[in-house]
Design a protein that fits this description.
The chain is mainly α. It has five helices and no strands. The protein starts with a helix and ends in a 7-residue tail after the last helix.
Length: 71
Amino acid sequence: MNWTLAENNWTQFKGRVRARWIKLDDDQLATIAGKRPELLKSIQTIYGISRSDAEREIRAFEARNRDYQPK
């Protein structure tokens, strides 16, 4: 998955992120703004999981969204 594409089209892409991690609120999504490291940190904090578990979840999310193209 191309995070630059996600960052540049964050308004569209954040719906996919929110659908996967429903505990992330609008302020957190605004802070993330398509940046993978910010997403990683937010998932760790909100869900109370380790960095490696958050990384694993993001990699699985990337695999499911590898063909993402903005509309």
